[in-house]
Amino acid sequence: MELDGRVAVVTGGTRGVGAGIARSFLEAGADVVVCARRPPAGPVAAGGRQAHFSAVDLRDPAAVEEFFAVVAHRYGRLDCLVNNAGGTPYRPLGEGGAQRHARVLELNLLAPMTASLLAHPWLREARGSVLMIGSVSGTRPSPGTAAYGAAKAGLEHLARSMAVEWAPEVRVNSLVLGMVRTELSHLHYGDEAGIAAVGATVPLGRLAEPADVGEAAVFLASDRAAYVSGASLLVHGGGERPAFLDAATVNKES
Fold this sequence. Notes:
Layout: E1 7-11, H1 16-27, E2 31-36, E3 45-46, E4 49-50, E5 52-55, H2 61-75, E6 80-83, H3 98-126, E7 129-135, H4 146-165, E8 171-177, H5 185-189, H6 192-199, H7 210-221, E9 232-235, H8 243-247
Parallel strand pairs: 1-2, 1-6, 2-5, 6-7, 7-8, 8-9
Antiparallel strand pairs: 3-4
Helix pairs in contact: 1-7, 2-3, 3-4
């Protein structure tokens, strides 16, 4: 399999997109460590194999440093770091105060930078890679999640700069995600009818599944992407249909 003998860490890998990535890595043959502040409800498993879980607060640099030391001691190597942990509640900029928005930036931008820096010695030794999980929110207006969008924009730029600084030993790339169907989708899109209606706005006609993201992540971590670094791979089902096309009163299909 593509990732036989490789070791990967997936932050926030206990549910949603992160769990989907972890399962795809397991199916590709990698040993996978998932981390989060709290343990998953059940093991993250696929292909008859199971990811190892470690509890860590990614906003605590000392804890993150210890975490990577333990991973390196346990497996003897680290080939891929997937910076997936993140997210945000809906909160307009005028609500919640500056500190709440700053915490969103801390989780979605500073924590991935910290994890990457502390994993770098082992990744360099293995000639491995870092994969940032970005969002289309970082490339378009993001009302209600402005701090999150700003963090994701910064994350993509960070990845490109890291790709230059850390070459040729470590490759660094981003997956820029659109809407993904997870166990929390109802919080963003409503009931099944709402989720289906939102999915219909995507050119490919549906929300992504975590496995769709996982397959793209496996590609970027594999030798098939050996010459891919500093890249941003769009995984958004074709993006968003421009609103003006539906508002215009000309060029309508009869």
